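hey so i finally got around to running the thing on that chain from the lab meeting. sorry it took forever, my laptop kept dying and i had to restart like 3 times. anyway pasting the input first so we r on the same page abt which one it is
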Amino acid sequence: MRRILLILVGAGLALFAAWSSISAEISHVPKAADILAKSPLAVYPGFGHNMQADEARFDRESLAREQLIARCMGQQDLPYTAVPPIRIDEIISPGETPKPLIDPNAEYAESLEPDERRAYYLALYGIPDPNDPRADRLHDPDSPTGGGCSGEAFRTIRGVYAAQSDLNEQYIAMRRSVMQDERVKAAEQRWSACMQDRGYEYASPRDLLAALDQATLQEAIITELTQQHQQAMDVADTCGTEVELEITVAEVRVDKETAFVKVHQDRLTRHLERLRTEATRLEQLVP
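ok and heres what got predicted. didnt touch it at all, straight out
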């Protein structure tokens, strides 16, 4: 049932996860981190420059929306239990079966008679059945009145990743352009040659990270493969420093982000102003 809430969030978290691997490569290098700090995009939350702060705010926003939903449902004499935000790393661990997600509100709805359940879901989501395969199309998050109490809560607090989600295609294109830049490609070739000199065959740090991720999914040989790739990670850091890969990526990223901000300045300014307004509401709901 909570899939409707995730739909309303948009693509923000997916983009956050995809970009975080690139950020991780360069954030541990002081000079590269200093370069990134000068990016004009760093001023705007939700675009990966302060991931810890963005994630913390996202959690507060989720809790605040739950409070708003509970209040809205209560005004209609309908019960609703505020549910804390769900973290993927809390329910999924390598080699383990994902823990089942229990939504007390879904359990309550399923205990109702069909007509009562329909009325409950209409109040909560604005559609009679959130599990309907057509649910995504039936729900209109842009409607000034649609989406039930959930839709109202998301319109009230659009959140830290809202601008990133609104600029989904443009942001993805900018992010890809960083790694496709000829300066970065040349640095990666130097990095790959450095790794080969030390006995490792990887075209880029992303290939190494992908290999490490794949190793952790193969439980039968996890120890051996993981140790091999972790050793390669140490060498990768050395090679990255030697060829200044992280610094190059940071410089290119700042160039691309500067152009991105210039094109979308008005929307980003409104994003920042909205976040400031929403911060007041957050203080009221989640002190």
